[in-house]
Amino acid sequence: MFGRCGLFAFSAFSLLAFPAAAQQIGTTHRVTPAAHGSVAGTLAVGSGVHADETIGTDKAGVAGLRFHDQSTLDVGPNSSVRLNKFIYDPNRGGGKAVLDAAKGSFRFSTGAQGGNRNIQIKTPVGTLGIRG
Hints:
Elements: H1 2-17, E1 24-32, E2 35-37, E3 41-42, E4 48-50, E5 53-57, E6 62-67, E7 72-75, E8 80-89, E9 94-103, E10 106-109, E11 119-122
Parallel strand pairs: 9-11
Antiparallel strand pairs: 1-4, 1-6, 2-3, 2-5, 5-8, 6-7, 7-10, 8-9
């Protein structure tokens, strides 16, 4: 009986000790000269970006991200953007994206979800310009 309890305790500890990996939602296609992610650490071209990750740049940094639906997000210098949620189902052509622009500048261009009304960009105070 003690053997079963020991195995159960080890299994429960294993699940708690190693959290589930964050879902990759895209990659970086440009980093000049440096940017960082809260999940990925220092970003380089080709680094994965993940749901619930915050992307940050310093006063000279710029990061270009490309998501699975081919939408792009350019994060300007001295900026911070949280990638709250990004769901895309290529079979249905829809999904949901939620970005939280905490500070600085950014440019977001829609991809395959372009006509979808389920894209939200939250800002503390700011102006959004919509073209096209």
